[in-house]
């Protein structure tokens, strides 16, 4: 089974980079002997490009920032399934910038017969600030990084023995 | 009753792009604009850092066009360090950039702009996306889109050093030289890109131009604005994405300005309005006359359509044929040897495909240039840096980077005018016009309101993704109609249950 760990976000936009920072930490923990079937990467892309990155993998662990309006504390860790993502993507057509949604892109990938992952784990951290340029996340989000990193490593350990 | 209508996407990223429509006392549309979130503190973030980090920092600004920021930053460094890149470096950069255009224009047509036409503007929004396009035109074409993007992403990675955030740009140089083996791969990709671009233009012909309703829509007054147009041109006044002079033509097509990007501040000013933090650039020499089109208004536009309008033609033969056909088909007459501008905003989608073909042809020219494998891709730097401006045509408009440093090359001042910024005023005008067609005397025809407004701004391909990524992804639109007392009197939203 080929697994892709992808940290999403912009690492110089305060909390937006939480996913990328987790990916860096996971990479560091895995050390130089990352098993061949695991790829850890960062990305600042959505939709189609993100889907394209996933081609050929069986399983994806996606780490991202999220802002919900449900009164969650900053730093709260959400574990979502692809189905959850589908639920919170109520339309495929909107004011969005330059792309299509990940769900639509994944559906398109499957429809095209591309080898798309079957298993998705999505970990999203409730963030406070994604509008100011800074390399440093806010304290609550910074505190979530080691926790999420451990969650990702745990998930990887289920399949392989991490060195 | 004074009303304010807000179209507000509900998303994890608040303010990711929302539309506000203001009604006057009579209930007519007074003003409208697309709110684009402003990321804060970029200048403070960069000041104090070495200037040579800018190509790597600025490509983090945006997840959509890191290649454009990387290139504008690299060119700003050329100017800052006063170093002329060798000819081969310019060619490699342009080749890299053309490949980027092939991916970027492709995604816009097939995933964003195209669905309105391929499936129809009245089609179910749930279907009006790339998946719907694939259903309509077939899996083979869907694979062509994916393959086009893949081969060009491979080249971007090969020449840019990284897949998503390129790192190859150096002052006066480029850190990757092209071997014969690489050259062959690029040449092969370029041939395929040309075939794909020609196919896409044929698809546009068959689906859009062959349908009278669509042509009527394109040329309709609701999607027409007579503004000034900006674009970068080469020494023959042909469209160029990588380098050249900035040319501005007036609404009748006469050259109004032609300047080096280092002089941008002499020609472009920014209007501040009390109701938004957005700044609206305009032509200084004409002046700000409000959100108006016409010869007396300094509003200009910088898009694929603008680039074609600002140029006398395309630098490659096949693209030139389509250029001629574009203007002939849309009824433009030649005056003093050049076509008068096409003002129909929806024609931007067609112009984008002509640019796609040009990018593909240019790639082939550069990939077969005998000099392209010259390994001398670095230049020594001997001067003390002070100030530099670099610009490129980003897919969404002219992109300008301006840096000042101390004598050690540490940044003291940074100013960027990003592609979409140029088009803030035209976008506001287009949203207003679209809203006017469906809102009169306080009566809102909600059916189709969102679609019409979306079509009006989508052709500009406005970039709001500076916050980079997307979870959950795209956002639903919601229209709130709010009266003068701040009460929501009606809500229209585009949800799928």
From TrEMBL, chain A:
GO terms for biological process: protein processing. Belongs to the peptidase A31 family. This is Hydrogenase maturation protease. GO terms for molecular function: aspartic-type endopeptidase activity; enzyme activator activity. SUPFAM superfamilies: HybD-like. Keywords: Aspartyl protease, Hydrolase, Protease. Pfam families: HycI. The keyword ATP-binding does not apply. InterPro entries: Pept_HybD-like_dom_sf, Peptidase_A31.
Automatic annotation (TrEMBL), chain B:
Residues 375-394 are annotated as: Disordered. Mg(2+) binds at residues 43, 62, 416, 469. InterPro entries: Ni-dep_hyd_lsu, Ni-dep_hyd_lsu_Ni_BS, NiFe-Hase_large. The keyword Oxidoreductase applies. Fe cation binds at residues 65, 466. The keyword Iron applies. Ni(2+) binds at residues 65, 463. Pfam families: NiFeSe_Hases. One of its GO terms (molecular function) is ferredoxin hydrogenase activity. Its cofactor is Ni(2+); Fe cation. Keywords: Iron, Magnesium, Metal-binding, Nickel, Oxidoreductase. Belongs to the [NiFe]/[NiFeSe] hydrogenase large subunit family. This is Ni/Fe hydrogenase subunit alpha. It comes from Candidatus Desulfolinea nitratireducens.
């Amino acid at each position: 089974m080929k697994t892709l760990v992808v940290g999403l976000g912009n690492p110089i936009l305060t909390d937006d980079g939480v996913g990328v920072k987790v990916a860096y930490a996971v990479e560091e923990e895995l050390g130089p002997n990352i098993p061949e079937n695991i790829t850890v990467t960062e990305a600042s892309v959505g939709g189609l490009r993100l889907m394209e990155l996933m081609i050929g993998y069986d399983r994806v662990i996606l780490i991202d920032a999220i802002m919900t309006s449900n009164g969650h504390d900053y730093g709260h860790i959400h574990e979502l399934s692809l189905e959850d993502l589908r639920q919170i993507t109520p339309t495929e057509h909107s004011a969005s910038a330059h792309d299509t949604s990940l769900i639509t892109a994944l559906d398109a990938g499957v429809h095209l017969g591309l080898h798309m992952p079957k298993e998705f784990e999505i970990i999203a951290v409730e963030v406070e600030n994604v509008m100011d340029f800074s390399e440093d996340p806010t304290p609550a989000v910074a505190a979530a990084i080691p926790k999420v990193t451990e969650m990702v490593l745990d998930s990887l350990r289920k399949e392989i023995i991490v060195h | 009753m004074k009303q304010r209508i807000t179209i507000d996407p509900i998303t994890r990223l608040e303010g990711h792009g929302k539309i506000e429509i203001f009604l006057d006392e009579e209930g007519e549309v007074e003003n409208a604009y697309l709110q684009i979130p402003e990321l804060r503190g970029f200048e403070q973030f960069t000041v104090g850092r070495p200037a040579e980090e800018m190509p790597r920092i600025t490509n983090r600004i945006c997840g959509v066009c890191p290649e454009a920021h990387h290139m504008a930053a690299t060119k700003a460094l050329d100017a800052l360090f006063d170093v002329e890149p060798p000819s081969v470096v310019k060619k490699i950069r342009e080749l890299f950039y053309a490949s980027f255009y092939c991916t970027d224009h492709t995604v816009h047509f097939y995933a964003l702009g195209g669905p309105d036409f391929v499936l129809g503007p009245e089609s179910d929004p749930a279907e009006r996306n790339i998946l719907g396009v694939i259903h309509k035109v077939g899996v083979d074409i869907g694979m062509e889109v994916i393959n086009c993007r893949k081969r060009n992403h491979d080249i971007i990675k090969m020449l840019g050093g990284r897949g998503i955030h390129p790192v190859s740009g150096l002052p006066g140089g480029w850190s990757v030289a092209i071997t014969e083996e690489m050259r062959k791969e690029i040449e092969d990709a370029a041939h395929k890109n040309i075939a794909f671009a020609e196919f896409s233009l044929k698809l546009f012909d068959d689906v859009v131009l062959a349908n009278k309703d669509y042509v009527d829509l394109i040329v309709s007054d609701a999607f027409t604005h007579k503004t000034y147009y900006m674009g970068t041109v080469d020494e023959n006044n042909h469209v160029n994405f990588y380098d050249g002079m900035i040319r501005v033509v007036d609404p009748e097509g006469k050259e109004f300005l032609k300047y080096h990007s280092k002089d941008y501040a002499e020609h472009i000013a920014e209007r501040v309005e009390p109701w938004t933090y957005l700044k609206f650039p305009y032509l200084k020499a004409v002046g700000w006359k409000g959100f108006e089109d016409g010869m007396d208004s300094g509003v200009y536009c910088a898009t694929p359509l603008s680039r074609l309008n600002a140029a006398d033609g395309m630098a490659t033969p096949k693209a030139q044929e389509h250029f001629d056909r574009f203007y002939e088909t849309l009824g433009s007459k030649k005056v003093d040897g050049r076509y008068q501008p096409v003002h129909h905003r929806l024609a931007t989608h067609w112009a984008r495909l002509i640019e796609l073909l040009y990018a593909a042809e240019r790639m082939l020219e550069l990939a077969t240039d005998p000099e392209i494998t010259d390994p001398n891709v670095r230049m020594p730097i001997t001067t003390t840096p002070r100030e530099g401006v670099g610009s490129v045509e980003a897919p969404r408009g002219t992109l300008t980077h301006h840096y000042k440093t101390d004598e050690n090359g540490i940044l003291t001042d940074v100013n960027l005018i990003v592609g979409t910024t140029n088009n803030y005023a035209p976008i506001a005008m287009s949203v207003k016009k679209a809203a006017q067609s469906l809102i009169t005397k306080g009566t809102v025809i909600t059916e189709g309101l969102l679609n019409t407004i979306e079509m009006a701004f989508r052709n500009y391909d406005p970039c709001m993704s500076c916050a980079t990524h997307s979870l959950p992804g795209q956002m639903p639109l919601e229209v709130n109609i709010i009266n003068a007392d701040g009460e929501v009197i009606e809500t229209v939203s585009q949800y799928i249950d």
